[in-house]
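Why predict the complex rather than its parts? Because the way molecules touch one another can change local conformation, and only a joint prediction can capture that. The input here totals 671 residues.
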Amino acid sequence: MKDTPHGAADTTPQVHADQQKQTLKFFFTPRDALAGEMEKLRRENPHAKDTTYVPDLVDALKARFGEALGEVALYAGEHTVYVDRAAIVDVCRFLREEAGFDYLCDMATVDRFTEEDRFEVVYNLVSIPHRKRLRLKVRVDEEDPVVPSITPVYRAANWHEREAWDMMGIRFEGHPDLRRIFLPEDFEYHPLRKDFPVLGIPGSLPLPPQQADGDLVYDPFPRAHGDLPED
Amino acid sequence: MAVPTAASPQRAHGAEPGSDRDVFTFWPRHNAALYEALENKHVHVELDGDPLESRMVLNLGPQHPATHGVIRFVLRLDGENIESCLLDIGYLHRGIEKLAEVKTYQEWMPYTDRTDYLQPYANNVAFCLAVEKVAGIEVPERAQWIRTMMCELARIQAHLLWLGTMVMDAGALSVFLWTFKYREEIYDIMDVVTGARLTVSHCRIGGLASDVGPDGLAMIRKFCDDLEAQMRDWKKLLDRNRIWLDRNIGIGTITPEEAVELGFTGPNLRGSGIPYDIRIVEPYLKYDEVEFDVPMRTEGDSLARYFVRVEEMEQSIRIIRQCLDRLPEGPIRADNAKAAFPSKDEVYYSMEGMIHDFLMTDVGVAPPKGAESYHAIEAAKGELGFYVVADGTGAPWRLKMNAPSFKNLQGLEYLMEGAMVADTVVLIGSVDPVMGDADK
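Output of the joint prediction:
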């Protein structure tokens, strides 16, 4: 404290050197799995369902598409198959026509924020007659975030791919109408990327004015950015 | 009464000829001229072709009383037929998936209340189940039975609104008020059980926030009896109502192949004969221990979906009654300090309880790095799922919500083409989207 009362000594407590290193950061320190925890959760998850456990299908896929598949992950009784992006349309076509996976349940995109293979496109396919579920993943680089569109195989992928473009900036080659879906076309960023701030980017979106007769506001959180609105 | 003219003006009431109130004029010449001009008026019509054959672009929304939320349909009309239709959504996009990355799992729970705001309890349960699957947390029996019961109550809540608004959009305004009376009763039940009417957030990771007392259970039982009796009357009104049938039969027919191809979900699939209900295919909570039927129809038109949803309401009542009878005693949250909040007694009276409470609030449940899973429930609108990618901290790395209304709207865009303008409201009602869900 700089403004101590006149004549008083500086009474700031001295912090020991090793105390300074031990900062409490339990929120932001990622926790790796404890010994045996992942194994236990893979095998004994109380919520695991038998629709997602499809080893025969995974073997059939490996037999058919060997080199085009990456690793196969299993967690909480759910199989996940990593597929090369060049082969995704063929894999989907095989699954739809020969394995009975007729329903595209969901598509998601994940920003891994790594140097290589930054983005992941996740496909959640369901076989209604066989009552099975499979997850496919395609990894793409930041420099070339293009994935072949699976709309020729699954028509339901149309809006999901538009959402992936809107939110994460992954282009889909062969999509009939790749436009933004939630945000206006004027918006220039892809919000779900990790480098897009949670509070938004000032200037990216014109917002209603603070007063009824004021101008459009361009900063969604003026106080948070140190920019008080005019009163 | 004779038209007053300049020659025979109107006389004031009770005025004798000769007095100064003899002639009640009130601009008689002006009126006379007006009536004369009306007789002589020629109407010039310049037709740019036949008006029924002209094409126009019509914007239905985003502010519209019959579109079930803020959504914009841009229709290109050829007279009364819709040639092509584009949906413009995103008016209610709030970026909750981005917010999930900075909040702990429990902190994010209230956002789920606000997605499908017609059935907030079921959204909470869906999210809780997804996180419990990623983290491998087992929930005690009593909590599972209560969650089952309240999920079904939420399904009734959503279907009541669907019934009221769909029939209101078709013209019968009273049904809206009748169904909302029962929604008010559900709000009162939620108030007593959870403390809030609409945005309940009653679920906690690992169980529930608080237990249901006997007064809450009595209210639920009474509600079931009342609603069952009332639904008989509603069915008597609608099931064979000529107007209702005429407005719904053959409208928005979805073939089974189309339904699966377009990504429809929920009663839209089951109205076309596709036997897909998450409660049967991937049972969660106590659905494999209660007896219920899943209504299905094969016609695939709007009336089939109406019957599916109404019968789902009846089946929900059946499930709730079984849950009420079979509700066991026991704890309502998991006992594991890393998995669930400790009880308030423990927090106030023990040091460990206080520490665990603090850590659960600050860090929360932390599934290991690299864990990811998907868990879905059968919500009233369809398959509501959450794909959680965990990174070892208390907040998810990525949370993707599989919103049923998003998929249903994609199919609705296809259904609108070829329909007539008057059928738009019936189609929207029968597909039953809710924008909080679709826009996230």
